[in-house]
Amino acid sequence: MDAAFKPTSTQQAILQRLRLPEHIVLKLQRPSFALDAKDTEAAREALTEELARVGFDSDYELTAEGRLIESLIDALFAP
Asked: Which end of the chain has fewer CB atoms < 10 Å from its terminal CB, N or C?
């Protein structure tokens, strides 16, 4: 991800609770940040795990939080 990403406060709260290496956590705490390809993939993997953990209701429909997590996964997409 080359361009700096500026998450909303709600997205920032989601990013801060992910289990990631310390150097990535420090970057994610900034108001805007850029990650290299390896760190972007690690963040996307952690977000995917978080989506599976909290992003669906009992009918397997996306919750509001699930949609936010998906938006973060999409924002961190690095072609």
From this structure: C
